[in-house]
Write a structure and sequence with these properties.
Belongs to the Homer family. GO terms for molecular function: G protein-coupled glutamate receptor binding. Residues 1-110 form the WH1 domain. By secondary structure, this protein is of the alpha+beta class. The chain is built from seven helices and eight strands. The protein has helices at residues 93-124, 126-130, 132-142, 154-182, 185-243, 250-280, 285-360, and strands spanning 3-16, 24-26, 32-39, 44-51, 54-60, 68-69, 74-79, 84-89. Strands 1, 2, 3, 4, 5, 6, 7 and 8 form an eight-stranded antiparallel β-sheet that branches. Helix 3 packs across helix 4, helix 5 (185-243) runs antiparallel to helix 7 (285-360) and helix 6 packs antiparallel against helix 7. The protein is rod-shaped. Residues 127-159 and 180-189 have low confidence and may be disordered.
Length: 361
Amino acid sequence: MGEQPIFSARAHVFQIDPATKRNWLPASKHAVTVSFFYDANRSVYRIISVGGTKAIINSTITPNMTFTKTSQKFGQWADSRANTVYGLGFATEQQLQQFSDQFKEVKEAARLAREKSQEKFELTNPALNIAAPQLSQDLSEDRHSPPLLTVNGPEDKLFRSKSADMEQLTSEKERIKKMLSEGSICEINLEAELFTLQDSNAKLVAALHEANTGVEEWKKQLAEYQEETGRLRDQVAELEAQSGRPGPSESETRDELTQTLEELEALLKAKDEEIHNLQSKNSDIPDLEKEREEAVQRLQDLETRNAELEQRVEKAEQTLASSLEERDRAESEVQRVIDVLDVKIYDLNDLRQSLAKLIDK
């Protein structure tokens, strides 16, 4: 079973400058994921962060480590194995507190894991377990005494090895304390805050640029809508002019048809009377038949003309209805465009107010 992540947070990663031991060097350009991992095979806890394809933090947590909060959003810890000091800048104070609490829990878990592994080692090595009290006493004495200069046997070698390890650990702690004391905490905090402010400033500049671009697009769209509105208004005016153009109205056409029909009826009546009179007088039948045929032909011509006039009336009615419908559609389109323009103008005013607030901030 491999390493498993147990906690993750986003933060800006820094490392102490190895040359000056005073200044922070950013290890990441942006906030990256910093995670706690647990290796069940080795009972080891580690803090790991990867930037791109490079591991910028690979720190094994030991019971001797301490995570220190140096400001509201910045914390640090020293790693003697990596011979460096790591710093983390968080976006909020709450994220820093969560990371600090997790660090304490993992540190305690590392301490318990070490004690458990030591107990297991002592149980599997009874001889060392028997001599443990004497070794502990000798080791405590070695902390306050110089290293042994003579070697008289295996026990002297074991004592000297343990004493050398303790001295090395003590000197490493002193070196780390000196390195931390040499650094100006105030300067470190200011640099971390400056980095955070620079990042925030870059975000604000990007947001302002995006807002300006949006305003230009809105202006362009508004000009297009205004142009479209003018064009539609011209079309409406043209349609109204066409619909108001003088021409034969429906009533005039009907009056003309009625008058024509009355004339035809009067003519037919007169011809019928004439034919009747001629028949009664037994006049020349062929002549009367000829006149009758001519009258019938004239009647057919008048009926044809009547049909043409009716078609003209019907076509005029269709044209008028189409013109009215097109005018209604144009008026609806104009109203829709006006409504859209009102919405866009409202959005533009809202965007201007947001920009003003953003600039005031």
